[in-house]
Amino acid sequence: VQLQASGGGLVQAGGSLRLSCAASGNIFSINRMGWYRQAPGKQRELVASITSGGSTNYADSVKGRFAISRDNAKNTVYVQMNSLKPEDTAVYYCNAYVYTVNIGGVDYWGQGTLVTVSS
Question: Per residue in 26-35, pLDDT tens?
Answer without folding.
Answer: 999 999 999 9
